[in-house]
Amino acid sequence: MKRKYVWIYSSYAVAAIVVGLCFFVNRWRTAQRHAYVPEDLSAEYAAWGIDADGMKEFVALPVHLPYNPIASRLGIDMFTSKKMGPYSRSCVSCHPQSGGGADGRRHSGVFTRPAYNAVFGKYYLHDGSISNFPDLVRCMIEDTRFIGAGSLSNAVARLNADGRIRKRFETHYGDGNFVGTNLVDSIVNFSRTLMTANGPFDRFCGGRDALDAERLAGFEQFKARRCARCHSGPSLGTRVVTEDGVRVPSLRGLSKRGIYQANGSLYSDLAAAVAMMPGSDFEDDDKSRLSLLAFLRCL
């Protein structure tokens, strides 16, 4: 009998310790949330030509980014070319210029992320495993889930069969310089032209009276509900990977999309997608919910 009671009391003790640990972990997480400090983006803002305090969470997209026009013209042809890989796929196959640069279809279990404003990201792919935009372009060319060339040299070899393409690259980059790094560079230069700048929120961030009363109320809801913890910076996202290993998407260009989740769950209704987010319980306050949706649609 004594052993039985020892076992029972030991179980109670273990349960108490677990509850206590859960309590302290929750308190620690709460403290971390309250201690949140916006990310310092000074260096990146300077590189993008954004005139803003580096600690500022909300900034207007620049009207244009520095890019090489000749390389960009090469890049748009490479973006649409089906010759780089063995599957007759191109970048534009999944990233058409309509729909914010995403086809709204699922590939390898996730939905295509928009090509527009992609250069402002910090993390790429669904799991945020790439943190450099040129590396993302390389992955798109090489990976069998996408264009599937296997390597940049394979892609160049396939394109090299067209002497006109080789000549254009060598005219710009120099003789003998039709190589994989310059193939990537051309697409990067083109991608720097894919932006949704000068929208209502950009004009508002630039000091202009560009948000009506409903959108302005929605912006206040956005801030009050701490959405900026994950959705800040020029792209309003793509700078955080969640505890579940999912990259937080950009909110830019939401009105042009038909898909609002990239984790394999189809949400074609923005209101349904917002309802899945933390802090989205509006109870009976439908006015606040609608104002937040109006704000999101102007991004």
Mean pLDDT: 84
Largest sheet: 2 strands, antiparallel
| Low-pLDDT regions | 22-35
What is the string of helix and strand elements? HHHHEEHHHHHHHH
CATH superfamily of the largest domain: Cytochrome c-like domain
Q: Which tags fit this structure?
A:
2 strands, Cytochrome Bc1 Complex, Chain D, domain 2, 2 domains, 1% strand, two-stranded antiparallel sheet, mainly alpha, 299 residues
Walk me through what this model shows.
The structure is a single chain. The protein is mainly alpha-helical and 299 residues long. The protein folds into 2 domains: 42-62 and 196-296, Cytochrome Bc1 Complex, Chain D, domain 2, CATH 1.10.760.10; 69-191, Orthogonal Bundle (Cytochrome Bc1 Complex, Chain D, domain 2). The protein has helices at residues 2-34, 42-48, 69-80, 91-94, 133-142, 152-160, 163-173, 180-191, 200-205, 213-224, 270-275, 286-296; strands spanning 106-107, 110-111. It has a two-stranded antiparallel sheet with strand order 1-2. The protein is globular, with a radius of gyration of 24 Å. Mean pLDDT is 84; it is low at 22-35.
Summarize the structure.
This protein has 299 residues and is an all-alpha fold. The protein is 44% helix and 1% strand.
Per-chain topology:
Blueprint: H1 2-34, H2 42-48, H3 69-80, H4 91-94, E1 106-107, E2 110-111, H5 133-142, H6 152-160, H7 163-173, H8 180-191, H9 200-205, H10 213-224, H11 270-275, H12 286-296
Antiparallel strand pairs: 1-2
Helix pairs in contact: 3-8, 5-8, 10-12
